[in-house]
């Protein structure tokens, strides 16, 4: 009882502290860049990071409380994107102090946008089969190859790149992890239009692109270990129960053009995010409940049962996140939980898709492919969130694939957590150049 009371007081103190700081520092008339500079250097942008590196040493759960407090206050949240989600945490684990100094400040202050150059047309689930190559040239490396499914590549300043630096080693051993500048003639980014109407992903062509030798993270040919750290953070972030309380509508980096804009233009009164039309992850049970109430489906036993199932998935994910937090606080871990969270998110988006279409009925065959069309669709049908339901239905095929397919997650759990035999194969010890390649 005492521990719980102390914990409650501590949580209240954290929220009160961030609110006091916001009252003294938030100014909606500031440019986004200046506001993010204040937020990032204060430690409140990523309070879960170490205090030596722009954080406050808080737990993930407390970090979510801070984010929610910022949103509730009506201030612009921390920069979103892959810099904060993946690059920064990976550099904290594997980067040198010089690399942390070089990259982390620009991440927490939103000065640079990031993307991830991992997947290739012939190396998706078998990521270690990548063929993008980097060859040493003095103090630089020359990179040639193709990447695909690159989120935010069109607005990125920097990228996390894995490339093959030694084809004479087995495929997992000859890979190096770089930070590469996206602003160079040797990099061509081409957006991929999806069936939702959006272009969240890109294909990227690298032709004699250059990257500095001191931009290697984790050592030469140590990229597979570093990449797995990035993938762990990705699965945790994308998994159910891993979402943050708020995400900024302003885009970090020099390309998107938001840094010079007024910070207050990206928030609405009460701290709730502006914008609208669509969702990228599983629709919440509350949102679908409201939709079912709006069109008279709330009394359908089948719909009610599946709404409860969706709510249960969310609660299980939330409690798993609390379990992991408690285990880490005690100096332990729960192996495989990020993979389970990723699988749970796949279940949530599939159920959201099926349930959303069941609730909307024939209206679910309609979809708006741009913001104006999505707004018009909601108004014409009189069904709130319809555009979000139809976008979820089209997008739901993605989360079970990206960030490691469901099949990959199950293999990891089976082999690394349960200790089951690995799939037979000769590629573990064979030099990569001797392996058969996809056409």
Task: Describe the overall structure.
By secondary structure, the protein is an alpha+beta fold. Among the domains are: 114-229, Butyryl-CoA Dehydrogenase, subunit A, domain 2 (Beta Barrel); 276-404, Up-down Bundle (Butyryl-CoA Dehydrogenase, subunit A, domain 3), CATH 1.20.140. The chain has helices at 2-25, 32-42, 60-73, 82-94, 97-108, 223-238, 285-294, 301-329, 337-360, 371-381, 386-395, 406-417; strands at 114-117, 133-137, 140-148, 158-164, 175-181, 187-192, 201-212, 216-217. A four-stranded mixed beta sheet has the order 1-4-5-8. Strands 2-3-7-6 form a four-stranded antiparallel beta sheet, with no helix packed on it. Strand 2 (133-137) and strand 3 (140-148) form a beta hairpin. The radius of gyration is 22 Å and the shape is globular. It starts with a helix and ends in a 22-residue tail after the last helix. Mean pLDDT is 87; it is low at 1-9 and 269-282.
| CATH architecture group name of the domain at 276-404 | Up-down Bundle
For the residues shown, what is the average pLDDT? 87
Q: Please give the number of β-strands.
A: 8
Q: Identify the CATH class of the domain at 276-404.
A: Mainly Alpha
**Helix-strand topology string:** HHHHHEEEEEEEEHHHHHHH
- Biggest sheet, spatial arrangement of strands: 1-4-5-8
The helicity comes to 40-55%
Radius of gyration: 22 Å
> Could you say which overall geometry the principal axes of the C-alpha atoms support?
globular
Low-confidence stretches: 1-9, 269-282
Number of helices: 12
Beta-strand percentage range = 5-15%
Structural class: alpha+beta
The name CATH uses for the topology of the domain at 276-404 is Butyryl-CoA Dehydrogenase, subunit A, domain 3
The largest sheet, given as strand count, sense and whether it forms a barrel, is: 4 strands, mixed
Give the N-terminus to C-terminus distance in angstroms. 63 Å
């Amino acid at each position: 009882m005492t521990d719980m009371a102390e914990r409650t007081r501590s949580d209240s103190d954290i929220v009160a502290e961030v609110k006091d700081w916001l009252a003294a520092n938030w100014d909606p008339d500031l440019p986004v860049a200046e506001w993010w500079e204040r937020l990032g250097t204060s430690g409140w942008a990523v309070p879960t990071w170490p205090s030596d590196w722009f954080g406050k040493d808080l737990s993930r759960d407390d970090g979510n409380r801070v984010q929610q407090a910022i949103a509730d206050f009506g201030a612009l949240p921390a920069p979103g994107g892959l810099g904060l989600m993946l690059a920064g945490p990976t550099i904290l684990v594997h980067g040198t102090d010089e690399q942390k100094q070089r990259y982390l400040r620009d991440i927490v202050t939103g000065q640079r946008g990031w993307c991830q150059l991992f997947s290739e047309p012939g190396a998706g689930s078998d990521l270690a089969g990548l063929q993008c190559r980097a060859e040493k040239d003095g103090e630089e490396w020359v990179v040639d190859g193709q990447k695909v499914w690159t989120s935010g590549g069109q607005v990125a300043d920097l990228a996390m790149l894995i490339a093959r630096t030694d084809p004479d080693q087995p495929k997992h051993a000859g890979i190096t992890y770089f930070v590469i500048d996206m602003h160079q003639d040797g990099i061509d980014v081409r957006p991929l239009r999806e069936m939702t109407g959006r272009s969240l992903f890109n294909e990227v062509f690298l032709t004699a692109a250059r990257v500095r030798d001191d931009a290697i993270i984790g050592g030469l040919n140590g990229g597979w270990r570093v990449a797995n750290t990035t993938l762990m953070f990705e699965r945790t972030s994308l998994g159910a129960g891993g979402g943050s309380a708020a995400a900024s509508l302003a885009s970090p980096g020099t390309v998107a053009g938001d840094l010079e804009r007024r910070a207050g233009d990206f928030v609405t009164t009460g701290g709730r995010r502006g914008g609208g039309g669509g969702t990228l992850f599983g629709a919440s049970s509350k949102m679908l409940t409201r939709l079912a109430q709006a069109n008279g489906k709330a009394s359908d036993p089948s719909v009610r049962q599946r709404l409860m199932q969706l709510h249960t998935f969310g609660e299980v994910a939330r409690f798993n996140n609390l379990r992991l937090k408690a285990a880490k606080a005690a100096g332990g871990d729960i192996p495989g939980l990020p993979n389970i969270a990723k699988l749970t998110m796949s279940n949530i988006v599939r159920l959201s898709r099926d349930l959303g279409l069941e609730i909307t009925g024939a209206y679910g065959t309609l979809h708006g492919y741009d913001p104006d069309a999505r707004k018009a669709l909601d108004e014409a049908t009189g069904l709130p969130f319809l555009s979000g339901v139809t976008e979820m239905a089209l997008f739901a095929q993605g989360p079970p694939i990206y960030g490691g397919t469901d099949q990959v997650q199950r293999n990891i759990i089976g082999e690394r957590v349960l200790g089951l035999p690995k799939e037979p194969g000769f590629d573990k010890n064979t030099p990569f150049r001797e392996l058969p390649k996809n056409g």
